[in-house]
Amino acid sequence: MRVLILGGDGYLGWPTAMHFAARGHEVTVIDNYLRRTIALETDSEPLYRTPTLQERAEIFAAVSNHKVRVVIGDCCDYDTLRGLVRDTQPEVVVHYAEQPSAPYSMRDYGSARLTLDNNLKATFNLAWAVIEEAPQAHIIKLGTMGEYGTPKIDIEEGWIEIDHKGRKDTFLFPRQAGSLYHTTKVLDTDLLWFYVRTFGIQVTDLMQGPVYGLRTPESELDDRLLPNFHYDDIFGTVVNRFLAQAVAGIPLTVYGKGGQTRGYLNLLDTLQCVELAAANPPGTGQLRILNQFTETFSVNALAEKVINVGRHMGLNVEVQALDNPRKEAEEHYYNPTHSGLLELGLQPNYLTDAVMEDLLKTVMCYKDAIAPRKVLPRVRWKQ
Predict the structure, then answer these.
(1) Which residues lie across from 172 on neighbouring strands?
(2) Contact assessment for residue 60 and residue 66, using Cβ atoms and an 8 Å cutoff
(3) Of 242, 231, 228, whose CA–CA distance to 48 is shortest?
(4) Displacement of CA 196 from its chain's centroid (Å)
(5) Quick one: pLDDT at residue 383?
(6) How far is CA 75 from the centre of its chain?
(7) Could you tell me the CATH number of the domain that includes residue 325?
């Protein structure tokens, strides 16, 4: 297939590009280095330096003989994106081109404005570029389980049937995001659903939980092909933050009561999910929503897992409970459905002790680069 990946320099974008290229697809990526720029501006650089996107593509070609075409450009510039869609005529467009951090979106007005402008404009431009230049293309948009929030009922897979006053209809599942970033993802879904209904484009919306993991078959070819690894409080997920803290001897920062529960998945499973979605398009005029995670953990459960594995490896791992800088339920009901991708053939990779040990060993290689100042919360939801 001809595959276009928006946000190809990201933690998910680059591994996805290599994954598809290694399987014989014709891959083009575009990125404007927004994530690199704002990470630098907020003192949130990754644990180790990653080569530029062009350098990554050259390294990958040298060690694998597979090519990834690189375009440095901004998806918020419609002429740029429309021209790229026209030139590549993609059969699949994977949309990662968004500011991905909830804490960053809550820093201040400027960060909130950038998040809103970038995320919605990129999605809006993509919808129109596909409508005008490649109407048969299948858009795979990365959503987030955070769109749903933590309702007191079971979370369905995107849609819910309502029986109201003797009549029934099906609607998007109610969503109650906990940050501006997550709210932009809700609005993404609404935008795409409108264009699906109006113009008949086909879209898969992957409601993804937090991802952990570093190594893929392609990155094993050369460590310079590893995805970026953020461990800070702004761009690092709780798993990455705990890994770095355990290695550096910094107490694990559990926010509040630690009962916050989410659905998690391995990076390898993200690649599986995107590939399965691409191989099984929903069809013209359809918005398919798939909840993309493999298992759920509370923050306390994750901390306990890191403690047990870390201490077995000789690390001195402790926990420090902090006042929660976020506005969120710290104890709640959480039971989301996630059968769609399993039915398509997903073979999950679970967060076993062996996987946790491998992650810790990788982070230990960069122990001296861990900056303690980056892991404590610097952003509060309520000013």
Answers:
(1) 159
(2) yes
(3) 228
(4) 23
(5) 64
(6) 18
(7) 3.40.50.720
Return the residue matching tokens 């431009």. Answer: 125
For residue range 196-243, list pLDDT tens digits in order. 999 999 999 999 999 999 999 999 999 999 999 999 999 999 999 999
- 381 falls within a domain: no
Q: What is the distance, to the nearest Å, from the Cα of residue 220 to the centroid of all Cα atoms in its chain?
A: 21
Q: Is residue 382 part of a domain?
A: no
Report the alpha-carbon distance of residue 93 to residue 27 in Å, rounded: 10
Residue with tokens 């879904």: 189
- Ramachandran sector of residue 158 (left: φ over 0; alpha: ψ -120 to 50; beta: rest): left
Cβ atoms 134, 196 nearer than 8 A: no
Q: Which residue has the tokens 């402008």?
A: 117
CA distance 81 to 122: 9
- Domain range holding 299? 2-374
- Residue 95 domain-assigned? yes
Token pair of 149 as six digits: 């929030």
Tokens of 243: 């890994």
CA distance 356 to 311: 12
Distance between CA atoms of residues 269 and 266, nearest Å:
5
Write the pLDDT tens digit of every residue in 22-40. 999 999 999 999 999 999 9
pLDDT one-digit tens code per residue, 116-162: 999 999 999 999 999 999 999 999 999 999 999 999 999 999 999 99
Domain count along the chain = 1
Quick one: tokens of 17? 């590009």
Q: Which alpha helices (DSSP H) does the chain contain, by range? A: 13-22, 34-41, 53-64, 78-88, 102-105, 109-133, 180-199, 238-248, 267-279, 299-312, 340-344, 353-364
Residues of the chain with pLDDT under 50: none
Active site members: 144, 181, 185
Judge whether 383 lies within some domain.
no
Residues forming a β-bridge with 121: none
- Strand pairing category for 92-95 and 138-144: parallel
Of 112, 178, 210, nearest in space to 328 by CA:
178
